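Following up on my earlier thread - several people asked me to post the actual chain instead of describing it. Fair enough. Here it is, all 317 residues.
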Amino acid sequence: ETGWTLGSKASAGILETMRRNGKPLGEYVKGEIYYGIKTGFNEAFILNDSERDTLIAADPKSTEIIKRLAKGDDVRKWHIRNKGRWIILTKIGTDMKRYPAIFAHLKKWKAELEKREDQGHHWWELRACAYYDVFEKTKIVYPEIARESRFSMDSSAIFPLKTIFSIPSSDSFLLGVLNSRVAWHYLKNTCSPLGDPEKGGRLLMQAIYLETLPIPLATPHQQTSVSCCVDRILAAKQDDPAVDMTKLEDEIDELVYDLYGLTPDEKKLVKESVVRGVTPAGLEDGEESDTGEVTNPKMKPAKKRKAALPPSLPGWD
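Reply from S.P.:
Thanks for posting it. Predicted structure:
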C-alpha cells in the first residue's frame, strides 16, 4: 500500500454516507462523459493567435474549421484560461479544396501525419468522433489530472484536447457539487494518484473514477440554493478570474454537506483533509504530448485503484 488510502473509519463512513444519499455521477449524466480530441500530432493541428490570423488572412474561409482550443492545464476552478490556442478541425470528409491555406499548412507535416495511428481516411483528417457536437454546446469540463478541484462551465464552444473531459450539461447545481470540498474528499479516496496527494501530488480523474462520485439527492429548492451561488461565482470569474470567492464557496460547501447528511464531526474531517487554494511550489503542471499523454518527471504514479464502474467514453471509433 502507498499510504494514500482511506485513513480511518470516519473517512470511510463519509464515503458510505455519500453513496447512500446520492446517485453515481455516471447515472446522473446518463453515461455522458467524453474525453477530448486526440490529434496524433499536435504541432500540425494546434495554432497560436498569430498562426490563426495568418491562415485567415490568406483565406478567410479558414475560419470555418479553426476552433478555439483548451488543454487540460487551461481548465481551472470556475473558469477556463484563454491561452490563445486554436485547433484545425479537419473532420472526416472535410473538403480540403475549400481550404487551400490550411491544406498548405498541413502539407508541411504530411510525412508525420501519414504515420499517425490516430487519423481519419486521409492524412489531413482527425480520427473519427461521433460527438463533436458536444463540444459546441454548453458543457462542464475538467482536466484528467489535477491536484485540486478544477471543474468549470464552458458556453463558448471551446474544443478540448484529450486531457479534458466534457459533460454536456448547463447544470449549475452539478457544477457546485463537483467543486465542493466533500466531492474532492471523495475523489482523493477514489482516484489513482500521481505522487502523494497530501504533499502536492495529483489525481488521475479518469471517467472510470468520476462515474462513481455520488451526486446528492436534492429538491428543486435545494438545487436552486446551490445554483444561485454557482452562477454568482461564474459571473464574477468571467469578469476577474483572480477574484476571491471563498465566502460563496464556503456557502456551497455547507449546502452540499447537508444534502449528503454529514454530521458536524464529518464536516470537520472533510475541512481538515481538503485545504482550499493551496498549490505547492515547484510542482509544474504536466505537459501534453502529441499522443495526448500528460507527463511530469517529478510525479511518480502510485498503485492504481479499482473502480466500481466501467468507463463511459462512447463515440470514438
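The CA atoms of residues 72 and 143 lie 5 Å apart. That should answer part of your original question.
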